[in-house]
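User: Is it possible to get a 3D structure for a protein together with its bound compound? The compound here is magnesium ion. I've pasted both below.
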Amino acid sequence: MKGRITKLIGGLYTVRDESNKDYKVKARGKFRHSNQSPKVGDLVGFDEDFIMTLEDRRNNLNRPPVCNIDQAILINSAKEPEFSFNLLDRFLLLIEHESITPVVIITKIDLLTESELTVLKNKMKYYEKFYDVYFVSSVTMENTESLRKIFEDKVSVFAGQTGAGKSSLLNALNPEFDLETNTISKALGRGKHTTRHSELLDLFGGLVADTPGFSKLDFFDIKVEEVPDCFVDFFELSHECKFRGCTHINEPKCKVKQEVELGNILSSRYHSYKVIREEIKDTKIKY
Ligand SMILES: Nc1nc2c(ncn2[C@@H]2O[C@H](COP(=O)(O)OP(=O)(O)O)[C@@H](O)[C@H]2O)c(=O)[nH]1
Ligand SMILES: [Mg+2]
Ligand SMILES: [Zn+2]
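Assistant: Yes, that's possible. Here is the predicted structure of the complex:
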């Protein structure tokens, strides 16, 4: 049989076959000895008891441990925690680096005044040239209906910092998920589903994984030379830079810098770029 791994808890895999039937199976011993053990998202060949074969992966995330992802749904809070363009750019870099398509969602818009929301929407127009952007609230349910269409026939992961509102949004989209929210209060020990194990949930004709979120983002896997290509807006302009392999820092006749000066590129975006580059350079020296 052929299917996709949708869940892994304590060595027991749930594999869904092509007719949407779920099987609980284990991995063959040989996988333990290879460096590739099956994980959530894998396309596998299996029988009633065991996973026998693994198909090549299109992409592969370690946090959360999910592979073969079609898109990353990047959740940013409009407030609490405060919206940050720098954080948005950092997440976009990580997702682009994995060659996964990002979808940008700004949630908790109920916490903004009308004029604050207008300001944010205007700035986000820049990102809308490159990405799909949605403004929603899991409390008032504003615009949550518009998210329905993004999940169909896709494997998605929710990404974003801790407290951004990922689990709340998933619960708002399907209350049956009953995912634990506000994990800081986990000490209360309520018996809710946690996001510690990885699982693909059914949502609007697709599959989606919640993630525990990140408190800090590191760029261990990214080389400084890779950063320009992961800023898609810069990448699109780079063929108009005078020099091939332009880093858009000190080179003369750099199209990116020209567009920043003309105000066609958000200055915060260029600032993020410079800061992240420096950070990656520093990290490489230290380790
Ligand atoms: N006002 C408001 N609060 C929200 C919204 N979404 C989430 N929250 C709150 O934000 C906190 C963190 O949410 P949670 O879903 O656990 O974030 P996660 O860590 O990204 O999964 C919780 O206290 C939620 O009640 C929203 O749309 N509006
Ligand atoms: Mg959560
Ligand atoms: Zn340049």
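Residues 267-286 form the longest helix (20 residues). Residues 1 and 47 are 6 Å apart (CA to CA).
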